[in-house]
Amino acid sequence: MASLKVYSNTGSSSGEAAISDKIASLKVNKHLIWEVIKAEQANARQGTHKTKTKAEVSGGGKKPWKQKGTGNARQGSTRSPQWRHGGIVFGPLPRDYTDGISRQKKQVGVAHILAQKVQDKKVVIYDGLNLEKASTKTAFEAISKITEGAKLQTEGREKKKLRKSSNKARHSIAVIMSSSETKDAKSLRNIPWVKPMNSARIAATSLFYNEGLVISKAALQELDKKFSAIL
Questions:
Q1: Crossing angle, helix 103-119 and helix 30-43, to 10 degrees?
Q2: pLDDT band at residue 9, thresholds of 50, 70 and 90?
Q3: pLDDT grade, residue 2 (50/70/90)?
Q4: What is the spatial distance between Cα 32 and Cα 37, in angstroms, rounded to a whole number?
Q5: pTM for the full predicted model
Q6: What CATH number is attached to the domain comprising 181?
Q7: Bridge-partner residues for 5, per DSSP?
Q8: 124 and 212 in contact (C-beta within 8 Å)?
Q9: In the chain, is it the N or the C terminus that has fewer CB atoms within a 10 Å radius of its CB?
Protein backbone atom coordinates (compact mmCIF):
# COMPACT_ATOMS: atom_id res chain seq x y z
CA MET A 1 0.00 0.00 0.00
CA ALA A 2 1.26 3.46 -0.91
CA SER A 3 0.78 6.38 1.45
CA LEU A 4 -0.13 10.05 1.19
CA LYS A 5 0.63 12.81 3.71
CA VAL A 6 -2.21 13.99 5.93
CA TYR A 7 -2.42 17.65 6.97
CA SER A 8 -4.39 19.27 9.76
CA ASN A 9 -6.26 22.59 9.58
CA THR A 10 -3.13 24.34 10.88
CA GLY A 11 -1.10 23.23 7.87
CA SER A 12 1.11 20.83 9.82
CA SER A 13 1.61 17.19 8.84
CA SER A 14 -0.38 14.86 11.10
CA GLY A 15 0.46 11.45 9.68
CA GLU A 16 -0.13 9.38 6.58
CA ALA A 17 -3.09 7.75 4.83
CA ALA A 18 -2.93 4.57 2.78
CA ILE A 19 -3.97 4.38 -0.86
CA SER A 20 -4.23 1.24 -2.97
CA ASP A 21 -1.26 0.24 -5.14
CA LYS A 22 -3.78 -0.28 -7.96
CA ILE A 23 -4.07 3.50 -8.11
CA ALA A 24 -0.59 4.60 -6.98
CA SER A 25 1.25 2.21 -9.35
CA LEU A 26 -1.18 2.37 -12.26
CA LYS A 27 0.30 2.82 -15.73
CA VAL A 28 -1.48 6.01 -16.78
CA ASN A 29 -3.26 5.97 -20.14
CA LYS A 30 -2.97 9.56 -21.36
CA HIS A 31 -5.11 8.93 -24.44
CA LEU A 32 -7.96 7.67 -22.26
CA ILE A 33 -7.70 10.83 -20.13
CA TRP A 34 -7.88 12.93 -23.30
CA GLU A 35 -10.96 11.04 -24.50
CA VAL A 36 -12.80 11.46 -21.20
CA ILE A 37 -12.04 15.19 -20.90
CA LYS A 38 -12.90 15.82 -24.56
CA ALA A 39 -16.25 14.05 -24.14
CA GLU A 40 -17.06 15.95 -20.94
CA GLN A 41 -16.27 19.32 -22.51
CA ALA A 42 -18.21 18.45 -25.68
CA ASN A 43 -21.27 17.37 -23.66
CA ALA A 44 -21.20 20.71 -21.83
CA ARG A 45 -21.65 22.65 -25.09
CA GLN A 46 -25.13 23.96 -25.87
CA GLY A 47 -24.65 24.00 -29.61
CA THR A 48 -27.13 26.88 -30.04
CA HIS A 49 -24.92 28.96 -32.35
CA LYS A 50 -26.75 30.31 -35.41
CA THR A 51 -26.31 32.97 -38.09
CA LYS A 52 -28.98 34.19 -40.49
CA THR A 53 -28.90 33.39 -44.20
CA LYS A 54 -30.00 35.73 -47.00
CA ALA A 55 -33.54 34.34 -46.70
CA GLU A 56 -33.72 34.90 -42.94
CA VAL A 57 -32.38 38.47 -42.62
CA SER A 58 -35.11 41.09 -42.24
CA GLY A 59 -35.66 43.41 -45.22
CA GLY A 60 -34.21 43.29 -48.71
CA GLY A 61 -37.48 42.50 -50.44
CA LYS A 62 -37.19 45.40 -52.89
CA LYS A 63 -34.74 45.32 -55.79
CA PRO A 64 -32.26 48.16 -55.04
CA TRP A 65 -32.19 49.44 -58.63
CA LYS A 66 -33.44 48.36 -62.03
CA GLN A 67 -31.72 45.54 -63.85
CA LYS A 68 -30.26 47.55 -66.74
CA GLY A 69 -29.19 51.08 -67.56
CA THR A 70 -27.59 52.23 -64.31
CA GLY A 71 -24.05 51.04 -64.95
CA ASN A 72 -24.06 49.20 -61.62
CA ALA A 73 -23.77 45.47 -61.24
CA ARG A 74 -27.15 43.79 -61.18
CA GLN A 75 -28.55 43.26 -57.69
CA GLY A 76 -31.73 41.56 -56.55
CA SER A 77 -31.63 42.26 -52.82
CA THR A 78 -29.77 44.36 -50.26
CA ARG A 79 -29.58 41.27 -48.06
CA SER A 80 -27.30 39.32 -50.42
CA PRO A 81 -24.05 38.20 -48.75
CA GLN A 82 -21.89 40.86 -50.42
CA TRP A 83 -23.97 43.66 -48.90
CA ARG A 84 -23.47 45.23 -45.49
CA HIS A 85 -26.15 43.79 -43.21
CA GLY A 86 -26.58 40.96 -45.68
CA GLY A 87 -26.98 37.27 -44.88
CA ILE A 88 -24.10 35.00 -43.88
CA VAL A 89 -22.91 32.24 -46.21
CA PHE A 90 -22.05 28.86 -44.65
CA GLY A 91 -22.40 30.22 -41.11
CA PRO A 92 -22.76 27.98 -38.03
CA LEU A 93 -26.07 26.19 -37.49
CA PRO A 94 -27.46 24.62 -34.31
CA ARG A 95 -25.98 21.17 -33.76
CA ASP A 96 -25.59 18.51 -31.12
CA TYR A 97 -22.03 18.10 -29.82
CA THR A 98 -22.84 15.10 -27.61
CA ASP A 99 -19.92 12.70 -27.44
CA GLY A 100 -21.17 9.32 -26.26
CA ILE A 101 -18.90 7.75 -23.67
CA SER A 102 -19.83 4.89 -21.37
CA ARG A 103 -20.13 5.43 -17.62
CA GLN A 104 -17.53 2.77 -16.90
CA LYS A 105 -15.03 4.29 -19.34
CA LYS A 106 -15.45 7.70 -17.71
CA GLN A 107 -14.89 6.22 -14.23
CA VAL A 108 -11.72 4.47 -15.41
CA GLY A 109 -10.55 7.72 -17.00
CA VAL A 110 -11.11 9.60 -13.73
CA ALA A 111 -9.15 6.88 -11.91
CA HIS A 112 -6.25 7.40 -14.33
CA ILE A 113 -6.32 11.17 -13.69
CA LEU A 114 -6.20 10.51 -9.93
CA ALA A 115 -3.29 8.08 -10.45
CA GLN A 116 -1.45 10.73 -12.48
CA LYS A 117 -1.91 13.27 -9.66
CA VAL A 118 -0.68 10.78 -7.06
CA GLN A 119 2.40 9.91 -9.11
CA ASP A 120 3.14 13.61 -9.66
CA LYS A 121 2.92 14.11 -5.87
CA LYS A 122 0.11 16.63 -6.26
CA VAL A 123 -2.28 14.94 -3.82
CA VAL A 124 -2.59 15.60 -0.09
CA ILE A 125 -5.13 14.41 2.48
CA TYR A 126 -6.78 16.51 5.18
CA ASP A 127 -8.52 15.45 8.38
CA GLY A 128 -11.67 17.44 7.60
CA LEU A 129 -12.46 21.07 8.26
CA ASN A 130 -14.62 20.11 11.29
CA LEU A 131 -16.81 23.18 10.97
CA GLU A 132 -19.59 23.83 13.48
CA LYS A 133 -21.47 25.72 10.78
CA ALA A 134 -20.84 26.71 7.17
CA SER A 135 -18.28 29.54 7.13
CA THR A 136 -16.31 30.67 4.09
CA LYS A 137 -13.90 32.69 6.26
CA THR A 138 -13.00 29.69 8.44
CA ALA A 139 -12.77 27.39 5.42
CA PHE A 140 -10.51 29.90 3.61
CA GLU A 141 -8.10 30.03 6.54
CA ALA A 142 -8.00 26.23 6.86
CA ILE A 143 -7.58 25.39 3.16
CA SER A 144 -4.95 28.14 2.80
CA LYS A 145 -2.88 26.64 5.62
CA ILE A 146 -3.30 23.11 4.24
CA THR A 147 -2.21 24.05 0.71
CA GLU A 148 0.67 26.20 1.95
CA GLY A 149 1.81 23.49 4.35
CA ALA A 150 1.77 20.97 1.50
CA LYS A 151 3.56 23.51 -0.75
CA LEU A 152 0.80 23.33 -3.37
CA GLN A 153 0.61 27.14 -3.47
CA THR A 154 4.32 27.92 -3.41
CA GLU A 155 5.75 25.43 -5.92
CA GLY A 156 7.24 27.34 -8.84
CA ARG A 157 6.72 30.69 -7.10
CA GLU A 158 8.97 30.39 -4.03
CA LYS A 159 9.85 34.10 -4.07
CA LYS A 160 6.26 35.30 -4.33
CA LYS A 161 4.61 36.09 -1.02
CA LEU A 162 0.90 35.33 -0.72
CA ARG A 163 -1.34 37.74 1.11
CA LYS A 164 -2.92 36.16 4.14
CA SER A 165 -6.55 36.95 3.31
CA SER A 166 -6.39 37.54 -0.45
CA ASN A 167 -7.50 35.37 -3.37
CA LYS A 168 -4.93 36.97 -5.70
CA ALA A 169 -2.02 35.01 -7.20
CA ARG A 170 -3.22 31.65 -5.88
CA HIS A 171 -3.00 28.35 -7.71
CA SER A 172 -6.24 26.58 -8.58
CA ILE A 173 -6.88 23.72 -6.13
CA ALA A 174 -9.45 20.89 -6.36
CA VAL A 175 -10.96 19.62 -3.11
CA ILE A 176 -12.80 16.28 -2.98
CA MET A 177 -15.21 15.64 -0.10
CA SER A 178 -17.62 12.87 0.82
CA SER A 179 -21.39 13.36 0.53
CA SER A 180 -21.69 13.77 4.31
CA GLU A 181 -19.34 16.78 4.43
CA THR A 182 -21.96 19.30 3.33
CA LYS A 183 -20.72 22.13 5.57
CA ASP A 184 -17.27 21.89 4.03
CA ALA A 185 -18.72 21.98 0.51
CA LYS A 186 -20.90 25.01 1.23
CA SER A 187 -18.00 26.87 2.83
CA LEU A 188 -15.48 26.17 0.06
CA ARG A 189 -17.68 26.85 -2.97
CA ASN A 190 -17.39 30.65 -2.57
CA ILE A 191 -13.59 30.64 -2.79
CA PRO A 192 -12.66 31.38 -6.44
CA TRP A 193 -9.45 29.33 -6.57
CA VAL A 194 -11.02 26.23 -4.98
CA LYS A 195 -12.95 23.65 -7.01
CA PRO A 196 -15.04 21.62 -4.51
CA MET A 197 -16.23 18.21 -5.71
CA ASN A 198 -18.30 15.36 -4.31
CA SER A 199 -16.52 11.99 -4.27
CA ALA A 200 -19.65 10.38 -5.76
CA ARG A 201 -19.63 12.71 -8.78
CA ILE A 202 -16.23 13.89 -9.95
CA ALA A 203 -15.80 16.08 -13.03
CA ALA A 204 -12.79 14.90 -15.05
CA THR A 205 -12.02 18.43 -16.28
CA SER A 206 -11.89 19.94 -12.77
CA LEU A 207 -9.88 16.98 -11.49
CA PHE A 208 -7.28 17.34 -14.26
CA TYR A 209 -6.91 21.11 -14.59
CA ASN A 210 -5.55 22.23 -11.22
CA GLU A 211 -2.24 22.69 -9.44
CA GLY A 212 -3.04 20.35 -6.57
CA LEU A 213 -5.62 17.94 -5.21
CA VAL A 214 -6.81 17.97 -1.60
CA ILE A 215 -8.92 15.00 -0.49
CA SER A 216 -10.67 14.44 2.83
CA LYS A 217 -10.00 11.17 4.67
CA ALA A 218 -13.60 10.05 4.24
CA ALA A 219 -13.55 10.78 0.49
CA LEU A 220 -10.23 8.96 0.07
CA GLN A 221 -11.72 5.77 1.49
CA GLU A 222 -14.68 6.02 -0.89
CA LEU A 223 -12.48 6.68 -3.93
CA ASP A 224 -10.01 3.95 -2.99
CA LYS A 225 -12.80 1.40 -2.67
CA LYS A 226 -14.56 2.44 -5.90
CA PHE A 227 -11.50 2.67 -8.16
CA SER A 228 -9.77 -0.44 -6.78
CA ALA A 229 -12.84 -2.42 -7.85
CA ILE A 230 -12.75 -1.24 -11.49
CA LEU A 231 -9.01 -1.18 -12.17
A1: 120
A2: confident
A3: confident
A4: 9
A5: 0.85
A6: 3.40.1370.10
A7: 16
A8: yes
A9: N
